[in-house]
Specification:
Blueprint (H helix, E strand, L loop, with lengths): L6 H8 L9 H27 L5 H16 L6 E10 L7 E9 L2 E7 L16 E6 L5 E7 L4 E7 L4 E5 L5 H31 L7 E5 L6 H7 L4 H8 L11 E5 L9
Helix pairs in contact: 5-6
Length: 264
């Protein structure tokens, strides 16, 4: 026996049931849960960026001290030093730990970069950041408030940049000692240069004779001027230099120093 269905019955059979609508409170709770998870994840990432891993500070400082010891030139000695750190935008403002050192010849900073966020640091020696500033170069180092006044630190200023070093309370006295030692050594280098400059300007002129000089590591144009009893302006003119920048291995023309050319 055939069964005949009406149009209304076919529509009822063929139409799927409408999905149940979640109540307003359920939707609100689901949204709050998702937002809480996102905020928690962001907080964990921020904490990982700000708080260094356990032992990172000591590991970095030990590596920095070992590097400083290996960098000492013959006859060079450490006058004073202080532990410090930096927050660079290239490291997403994460803290890198190191040491600021005043030797009798230059100012040094050696620090280890922060641990990578996305992968563990490879086993082996740390890739250290090394900055060296001879006392005859143009720079100042002063104890100042850094990080918008929230921390104590040392501010290094050169003609081309300003660098902040963060210093904790335990190292503050040592940091001030580094600044004083640096200022005293730079003052002595400046007075020596001025004395040489006066002797050059006041000495009787002789026939100019020039010799080649190959730039070695750590040498500056000001230091070479003092060594060869001349001025940076003369060396720049002789070698057609636009500024005081010189590179290791570069050949320069310098005045020949005679035995009689001694300081007064």
């Amino acid at each position: 026996m055939n069964t005949v269905r009406t149009t209304k019955e076919w529509l009822t059979v063929g139409t799927p049931p409408a999905p149940k609508q979640r109540s307003l409170w359920v939707r609100v709770l689901v949204g709050l849960t998702s937002a809480t998870a996102l905020v928690g994840t962001a907080a964990l990432v921020a904490a990982a960026a700000i708080v260094p891993p356990i032992g990172a500070r000591k590991l970095a400082r030990d590596a920095a001290l070992n590097e400083v010891a290996s960098m000492m030139r013959p006859g060079e000695r450490v006058v004073t030093q202080a532990f410090a750190s930096q927050r660079r935008w290239t490291d997403m403002w994460r803290e890198s730990f190191g040491v600021v050192v005043a030797t009798d010849q230059r100012l040094l900073y050696v620090g280890a970069p922060p641990t990578p966020l996305l992968r563990p640091r490879d086993d082996g020696p740390l890739a250290l950041l090394v900055e060296s500033y001879p006392y005859d170069a143009a720079f100042t180092l002063e104890p100042r408030a850094v990080l918008r006044g929230r921390k104590r630190g040392l501010v290094l200023r050169t003609p081309g940049a300003t660098v902040d070093f963060i210093v904790d309370e335990a190292s503050w006295d040592e940091a001030q000692g580094v600044a004083r030692a640096s200022a005293a050594a730079r003052g002595a280098a400046t007075r020596e240069f001025e004395q040489v400059d006066r002797s050059v300007r006041e000495a009787p002129r002789r026939a100019e004779e020039y010799v080649p000089h190959v730039v070695r590591r750590g040498e500056t144009l000001t230091g070479l001027a003092r060594r060869y009893r001349t001025s940076p302006d003369v060396l720049r003119q002789l070698n057609r230099l636009e500024d005081d920048g010189i590179e290791v291995g570069q050949r320069l023309r310098v005045p020949k120093v005679f035995a009689a050319d001694t300081l007064p």
